[in-house]
Every structure is written in C-alpha cells, then in structure tokens.
Amino acid sequence: MKAPVDAPFNATEGLEKYPKILDYSRAHTVTCVAFEKHDGKNLAFKWHSAGYGFIEVPSFRSGRTVMEELGVFGAATDVFDSSIRERADEGMRPFREAGREKAVLFCEFRGPRSFSGEHEKDDPKTLHPIDLWIEGLGFMPPDLFAQAFRIKPVYQGKLTAKFAEDVRAGRLGVNEGVVCKGETWGSVWACKIKTRAWLARGGEA
To answer: 115-127 in b/e burial notation, b at 16+ Cβ within 10 A?
Structure first.
C-alpha cells in the first residue's frame, strides 16, 4: 500500500508555501525516514543563484516576512547565519553547479518554552532545517536531506502500526512527534504522528 501523498509535495514549479502535512491514519508497508517534528514556527529562506545565496529575510506560510512581524522572530536571521548558513550553502553547491536557479529551505524556529505556535520572546531560539525545495525538482528526498544537513533521523525503516504506536506512547524520546517521509525527487510524501502527551497538553492535532 502506498503512503498518502500530499499533492503540493510533488510541486516542482512555483511553490508558494510549505505544504500541509497529512496525519498518519493506517499501517503502510512503505519504507520511510522519520524526523523529529519540532514544536516551532515554519520559516522559509529563499535562495536564488543570481544573488548571494540564501536571502536573510525569511517568510512565514502566510507570505508575511519576519521584518513585518519582528517580535519573537527578530533573532531568526542571526540564528540562520550562525547555525544554518554554512550547511545550507554547502548543500546548495551541486544545484548551483547544475544550473538550478531557485530554492527554498524550510526551517522550524523555536525556543525551549515554545508550545503549539506560541513562543517566549526572551527565550534563546534555534532553527531546525526540515525540507529543501528545488525549482524544477521538487522536495529533496529525505535520505539525501539528512545527509546534506547532517541531521540524524529518529527512525529509518518500515512505516508500521507498531512504529506509530511507539511514537504516540512517547517511546522514541520526541516531544511533539515525528514527520515520516519517503520516495524520491518529484514524488516525496510525508505524514505526521504526534505523541499523546503533547496532545494532552493542548497541542494541535
């Protein structure tokens, strides 16, 4: 049985915002790579080969930029420069050399007390890369993404009911849950599984 595909994940041209991830709903026999689902705010850092790499003013899913909503997000550009830019530029090098012109790196911005989209202004913030979209190719396959951005997956293997239950029961050491992904360029799918403890605190399903 093939895992559900959220259609925007297959977009190779003109991606406007990060696609909504479907909930895991049944056992699948597909192989997946599972990453921790960070409880943060999704920020998009755009890249253009004709410029200086990644643009320092990220945007939200709404299309508004950090400069329009500074507040708790004012540190986002500094955190990107100090912790992400080197990996991002390195990851983009082969695509620049291959003549690709546009890309978007999606990251989750969060602090130690962030919860369900709410953040404490004075908390130190971190950025966590979650996806790279390349115009003409679509989203980077999850195994390649993990390698490019030096991210250790929570799990790699069959997406089974037992694995889903282990996530929900909090046996994998994650807070909000995981995002499972699979397939290759142009056909990447994704689904999310959340922990019962996070949902019990009032987190959004």
So the answer is: beeebeeeeebbb
